[in-house]
Specification:
It contains three helices and six strands, in the order ββααββαββ. It has 149 residues and is α+β, with helices and mostly antiparallel strands.
Length: 149
Amino acid sequence: MIAISLPATRGSWSTMSFTSTLYLYPVLDLLLAKIPSQLQPEIRLGLQEALVNAAKHGNKLDPSKTIVVQFAITKDGYSWIISDEGCGFSPDCDCICQPTELLPSEDYESGRGLCLLHQIFDRVQWNREGSELRLCKQIRRGRFNPLLC
């Protein structure tokens, strides 16, 4: 089940919550509904990675735990805050390095998500506990520069 609280005005935050699952198509479709089509593939990839991490690593795929997504659209861009009920984590980097330096070796089956997030979004920031992720994508008026074509 997905619960949504819609804003009264543009720029206000909406809230969506859903149980931990890897079936994210309906959630992503709702989150991307007002995003320009040329940006959707890139943002979909980034949001999917963030939501999978919240469900899989944060909530350990426990269906009794919830993921909450707050999102807003402003004239300057798009923002999301993704929260899970897990115990949190501490990113391995201080985010000063180049995102490609975050890539694990090819022997690892996972770990590329942080690099993707830093490539796609202009701001990637966790709260102190590591259970809440803030993502921002800025819009440069008249210029869309998607990473994916």
